[in-house]
Write a structure and sequence with these properties.
Length: 478
């Protein structure tokens, strides 16, 4: 999606006031629709009732309902209470409630909150209406204007000021959009007494030509150290080549600088995929606030999001790949690091990050990861007593309190898992009926049993010590 921001300049103050009143009514309509959606009202009923209530045409009302539904779904996805959503911003509202400032500063804060709450208008594009019916871009001799529908056959015109000199291309692009009749959405926002327009145009991507038919490129993005690990695999899942792209620029610097380099790194990945003629496999973008079990604990989830915008980088890779006609496959990231470090890092003598990228690539091809036979023999021989000894060893050797507690918690889960298997002879690798355990728990217990003793103070980068166990089935005193 391409978004162009511009300031609206009105011919007179009266026209501006008419639009401000429209924005106020639309914002009220959206908030009202939100409350009714919480109560279970359906779209058709709301669309019929709200038109007369807020003196808006059916398109404006429909867009208000859509925005309200989007806000509601967003709150639910983030595990926030939908009934406690505050339009205008919770942080600003909290500051106003505390009354920690007075006079002009308080009034300035109140005005800012009211602008965010009441100064909104959204109008979706429509291909059948040659762009946008309620808010249409029109090119005239004296400039580019936005025609705003403010009532039955009543329109207000505002000149679009997209910038000067280096931003002149914005106005030219808006003119091209107006003349091409492609659909575009317009969102109006009130800021510091001025009305700004945001024009959004959906990109039309070329047909997908590079698919997973000949293999894929698996991508694993790491927070510490900042790098992208990638692997190339053939259509059967065999490892062909791999590499790592360091990203030191994303650790610090201004927002614009980091954004620039995210695009550069995304270009590098897409270039690799294009040269090798393979699809790209990435982790799913829906990282929750509380994290996931397995690969994405809450702590790692927060670290990834805040250190270098993990989600933003993956989104850019998706966008650039689509522009090049390259298929992008998204997979569940759970346990990719654990499986990679245990199964492929010692086998191919690669880092755990490269190994994780390899698991992601194979998962994109639909391949399942089975625990190697020698690992299963080790697990079948593992006892609760040995894990209890490991727990005591960790208590004595690990100085870092947080890491020590983390290890002990993992060992306790592993002990509980082994105890649940005592009634199951052979300890078969399968989901366990009547329990909360899954096949992934075998990998987790394996990590506790073989990785923790190797390096209890930190996760090692070199897993060659596991090669004898993995290949030859040899292990010593746990």
């Amino acid at each position: 999606m391409i978004v162009i921001q511009a300031k609206l300049i009105f011919l007179n103050q009266e026209d501006k006031q008419i639009v401000l009143d429209l924005m106020r009514r639309w914002s009220s309509c959206m908030r009202f629709a939100y409350k009714r959606l919480l109560e279970g009202y359906d779209r058709k009923t709301l669309k019929r009732d709200l038109q007369g209530m807020f003196d808006l045409n059916s398109r404006y009302v429909d867009d208000a309902i859509m925005k309200a539904r989007s806000t509601l779904e967003s709150a639910r996805q983030l595990d926030n209470n939908p009934k406690k959503v505050i339009f205008g911003g919770r942080d600003l509202f909290g500051k106003l409630q505390k009354r920690h400032i007075n006079g002009k500063e308080y009034q300035k804060l109140k005005t800012k909150w009211q602008e965010r709450r009441k100064g909104n208008l959204y109008s979706r594009g429509d291909k059948s209406k040659k762009g946008n019916l309620n808010t249409r871009i029109e090119v005239k001799e004296n400039g580019t204007f936005l025609r705003i529908n403010v009532g039955e056959r009543k329109y207000v015109y505002a000149r679009i000021e997209a910038g000067y000199k280096k931003n002149k291309r914005r106005e030219e692009l808006l003119q091209e959009i107006a003349e091409s009749n492609i659909p575009y959405s317009v969102e109006l926002k009130l800021k510091n007494g001025n009305i700004y327009a945001y024009f959004a145009i959906e990109e039309e991507y070329p047909e997908i030509k590079i698919t997973k038919e000949k293999g894929v490129i698996g991508i694993d993005i790491n927070a510490y150290p900042e790098n992208i690990s990638w692997t190339e695999v053939d259509e059967k899942g065999n490892l062909i080549s791999y590499g790592s792209i360091p990203m030191p620029e994303l650790a610090s610097g201004s927002k614009d600088k980091r954004e620039y380099f995210r695009w550069q790194y995304a270009h590098e990945i897409v270039k690799i995929a294009k040269e090798k003629g393979k699809a790209i496999v990435i982790e799913k973008l829906d990282i929750k606030e509380k994290g996931k079990r397995g690969d994405f604990s809450g702590r790692k989830s927060r670290r990834i999001r805040h250190s270098f915008s993990y989600k933003s980088l993956l989104s850019k890779i998706k966008t650039l790949a689509k522009r090049e006609g390259i298929e992008v496959i998204e997979v569940n990231p759970s346990y990719t690091s654990i499986i990679g470090m245990l199964k492929y890092a010692p086998q191919y003598m690669i880092t755990k990050d490269i190994a994780a990228a390899y698991v992601i690539a194979r998962r994109g091809l639909g391949l399942q990861e089975k625990i190697p036979d020698n690992y299963m023999k080790f697990l079948n021989a593992l006892t609760v007593e040995e894990l209890e000894e490991l727990k005591e060893y960790v208590k004595k050797t690990v100085r870092n309190k947080h890491l020590r507690e983390k290890h002990i918690k993992e060992i306790k889960k592993a002990i509980k898992f082994l105890q649940s298997l005592e009634s199951k002879p052979g300890r078969v690798l399968e989901p366990l009926d009547g329990t909360s355990f899954s096949a992934y728990d075998f990998w987790r217990v394996l990590k506790v049993a073989v990785v923790t003793p190797l390096s209890p103070e930190k996760v090692p980068r070199d897993f060659s010590a596991l090669k004898e166990l993995l290949i030859q089935g040899k292990w010593g005193d746990p």
